[in-house]
């Protein structure tokens, strides 16, 4: 299966490489190190059979890619989606390398994915798919080598199946092989909310910097899953007004504000936010252009391009999703003075608390949620200020600054280790 890319929907791996080039130019990186960082270190493609409920056999294709291991074991989520492609997973693995480096946690970057529409599978079929995919990628994953986590359409149950499958092969329980697990098998308090909470901390810093009052701000969120729904809830707890949200079936808008908890239970019951009483229905395209102070893309890549970026009304864009803004849109936002809080900073709370979970599993010693949130806040605020300082120094946008910080750290680690043999 191949994915078609166009001017509007650009190849995410090409975007990722372009972003790396920009940072490498600022850093004056020598060509050898550039070449190392440009290429994923390991790529595994697997095709595997799953017996469906009706007895038939389907074959699925999946990937696990480790982009870079210079700063520690590889870390990154697993995505189930019909549009997953090799280039998408390459881009996502590279973004994971930079994300771990921005927040300075000792991991390299990885990502995995299976080409599947999970909504068409029963729970039993999904379990079998997950267990077989885990077995196929067990060549690469392990607590010291590569530690998966949830991403689009995977969750703590998926992680439990991965952990159990890996442990069955080993003959003993290896909780640290994945993060984002349920609490009763080595999960960490606060991990489920971590991506959203990290995003909330970054938004709080950005609104302070821009002299905006978060409690008087309006917010639109695209994507109402783990990242999007929880960040909407947390910001409404900060008294912000959530005026629009969406999922894969469309969006809803109420300029007076949505009751986020009520929208969450509506989605739980009906499988979508569309149809929520008292709100106008809007398309996902129109949602991005609604009047608001803060726009949070929390769905998929390639949502903001050079065209719709001209019509975005928000003052701050916080990327809970990975890769929602293409480089043409970045240029437009910079010229228009719109602050983009880049994915590798804004959604790094998830991997940061995944790191905490991994540390807790390795030590079999668990923290309270308050300890987790406190440590997360310290890391997010410090990282925001590290990126801001570089943005001011080089007079660049926050994305370029985050890349300069991250690529610089990974390049230094690579040079310190040297090239083997
Ligand atoms: P999820 O599966 O929990 O939720 C995804 C949401 O996006 C769903 O509500 C889905 O209906 C919606 N969606 C899908 N296609 C859409 C479209 N075209 N328009 C609008 N909405 C659409 O996934 P998630 O874990 O919340 O991940 C969302 C994004 O956040 C991804 O880019 C992911 O890589 C990123 N992210 C997630 C985590 C995490 O810890 N879960 C961490 C960092 C980054």
TrEMBL record:
Active site: 111
Binding site for substrate: 75, 99, 354
Keyword line: NAD, Nucleotide-binding, Oxidoreductase
Entry superkingdom: Bacteria
Annotated site, Important for catalysis, chain positions: 151
Protein name: Glutamate dehydrogenase
Any one GO BP annotation for this protein: L-glutamate catabolic process
Keyword match Nucleotide-binding: yes
Oxidoreductase found in the keyword field: yes
Pfam families in the record: ELFV_dehydrog, ELFV_dehydrog_N
Stated family: Belongs to the Glu/Leu/Phe/Val dehydrogenases family.
Residues that, per the record, bind NAD(+): 195, 226
CDD domains recorded: NAD_bind_1_Glu_DH
Domain annotation Glutamate/phenylalanine/leucine/valine/L-tryptophan dehydrogenase C-terminal: ranges: 188-418
MF (Gene Ontology): glutamate dehydrogenase (NAD+) activity; nucleotide binding
Species of provenance: Candidatus Chlorohelix allophototropha
InterPro entries: Aminoacid_DH-like_N_sf, Glu/Leu/Phe/Val/Trp_DH, Glu/Leu/Phe/Val/Trp_DH_C, Glu/Leu/Phe/Val/Trp_DH_dimer, Glu/Leu/Phe/Val_DH_AS, Glu_DH, NAD(P)-bd_dom_sf, NAD_bind_Glu_DH
């Amino acid at each position: 299966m191949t994915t078609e890319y166009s001017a509007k929907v650009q190849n995410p791996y090409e975007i990722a490489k372009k972003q790396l080039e920009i940072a490498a130019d600022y850093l004056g990186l020598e060509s050898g190190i550039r070449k190392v960082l440009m290429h994923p270190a390991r790529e595994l493609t697997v095709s595997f059979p799953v017996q469906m409920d009706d007895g038939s056999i389907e074959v699925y294709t999946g990937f696990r890619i480790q982009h870079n291991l210079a700063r520690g074991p590889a870390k990154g989520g697993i995505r189930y989606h019909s549009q997953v492609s090799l280039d998408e997973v390459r881009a996502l693995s590279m973004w994971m390398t930079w994300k771990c480096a921005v927040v300075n946690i000792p991991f390299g970057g990885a990502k995995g994915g299976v080409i599947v529409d999970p909504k068409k599978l029963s729970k039993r079929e999904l379990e079998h798919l997950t267990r077989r995919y885990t077995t196929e990628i067990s060549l690469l994953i392990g607590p010291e080598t590569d530690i998966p986590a949830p991403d689009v359409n995977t969750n703590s149950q998926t992680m439990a199946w991965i952990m159990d499958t890996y442990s069955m092969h080993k003959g003993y329980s290896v909780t640290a092989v994945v993060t984002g697990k349920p609490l009763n098998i080595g999960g960490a308090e606060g991990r489920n909310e971590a991506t959203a909470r990290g995003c909330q901390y970054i938004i709080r810093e950005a609104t302070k910097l821009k002299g905006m009052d978060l409690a008087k701000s309006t917010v639109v969120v695209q994507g109402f899953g783990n990242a999007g729904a929880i960040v909407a809830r947390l910001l409404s707890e900060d008294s912000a007004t959530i005026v629009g949200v969406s999922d894969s079936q469309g969006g809803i808008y109420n300029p007076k504000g949505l009751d986020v908890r009520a929208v969450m239970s509506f989605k739980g019951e009906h499988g979508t936010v569309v149809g929520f009483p008292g709100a106008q229905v809007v398309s996902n395209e129109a949602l991005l252009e609604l009047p608001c102070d803060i726009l949070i893309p929390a769905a998929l890549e390639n949502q903001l391009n050079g065209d719709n970026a001209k019509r975005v009304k928000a003052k701050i864009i916080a990327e809970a999703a990975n890769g929602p803004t293409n480089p043409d849109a970045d240029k437009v936002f910079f010229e228009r003075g719109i602050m983009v809080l880049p994915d590798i900073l804004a959604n790094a709370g998830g991997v940061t608390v995944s790191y905490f979970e991994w540390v807790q599993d390795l030590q079999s010693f668990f923290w309270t949620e308050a300890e987790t949130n406190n440590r997360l806040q310290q890391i997010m605020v410090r990282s925001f200020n590290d990126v801001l300082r570089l943005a001011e120094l080089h007079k660049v946008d926050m994305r370029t600054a985050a890349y300069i910080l991250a690529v610089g750290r990974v390049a230094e680690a690579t040079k310190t280790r040297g090239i083997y043999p």
